[in-house]
Design a protein that fits this description.
- By secondary structure, the protein is of the alpha+beta class.
- It has one domain: Alpha-Beta Complex (Creatine Amidinohydrolase), CATH 3.90.230.10.
- α1 packs antiparallel against α2.
- It binds magnesium ion.
- The site of magnesium ion has 5 residues, from loops.
Length: 236
């Protein structure tokens, strides 16, 4: 898990360096795939249920699952990039939203709120706690900033499969919640909208966008549960 997650982190670092006005999302995808394969990994997303690319690239009102293409990034855009890597039989999954050039203060605040939500959730991820403790910390942090969490999509267990049990919602789900045990590996990934929480899927069958056209951000880490807290695996 550390090995695959490290490649995820390296790829996201490369993306942060390449994201600039004028670059296309296809060029980002090509660069990501090259880095992943040259590090002995394979892009987890490529071919997953027919997904045609190595990264997901979701711009502005794009929430997740955007397909890279000929779109050129423009000054002031935000872009969420999601990276999955399979290496030595294990998957790693991570995402971040980047500003393209100079972005509005509103956009910058959304990014910061989403990242804060992720980190608040990870702080609650320790053995003996429950999934809902992660969910609540994310939801409280995000909503305190006046933003909404997307409820149609959730984080997930991860390991030999990219998506495993348990689900990791970014909002409180009433009822029983799985207990966290040392050694569990989870992908925690708040998706946060500046407007309403509702989303829809574009005509390409993949791209999830906000229903009201508001901006959306997405930050994700793969973590390992420990007795004294979570180890973040998707770090360089
Ligand atoms: Mg994920």
């Amino acid at each position: 898990m550390r090995a695959s997650c490290r490649v995820v982190a390296q790829t996201l670092r490369l993306m942060s360096e390449l994201v600039k006005p004028g670059i296309t999302t296809q060029e980002l995808d090509t660069a990501a795939e090259e880095l992943i394969t040259s590090n002995g990994g394979a892009p987890s997303f490529k071919g997953y249920r027919g997904f045609p690319a190595s990264i997901c690239a979701s711009v502005n009102s794009g929430v997740v699952h955007g397909i890279p293409g000929s779109r050129r990034l423009e000054e002031g855009d935000i872009i969420s990039i999601d990276v999955g890597v399979l290496k030595d039989g294990y998957h790693g999954d991570g995402a971040a939203t980047f500003g393209v050039g100079k972005i509005s203060q509103a956009a910058a605040k959304l990014l910061e709120a989403t990242r804060s939500g992720l980190m608040a959730g990870i702080e609650k991820a320790l053995a003996g706690s429950r999934i809902v403790d992660i969910s609540r910390a994310i939801q409280d942090t995000v909503e305190a900033g006046g933003y909404s969490v997307v409820t149609d999509l959730v984080g997930h267990g991860i390991g030999r499969q990219m998506h495993e049990e348990p689900q990791v919602p970014n909002f409180v789900v009433p009822g029983d919640s799985p207990v966290l045990a040392s050694g569990m590996t989870l992908a925690v990934e708040p998706m946060v909208n500046s407007g309403g929480s509702e989303v829809k899927i574009e005509g390409d069958g993949w791209t999830v966008v906000t229903r009201d056209g508001s901006l959306s951000a997405h930050f994700e880490h793969t973590i390992a549960i420990r007795a004294d807290g979570a180890e973040i695996l998707t770090l360089v």
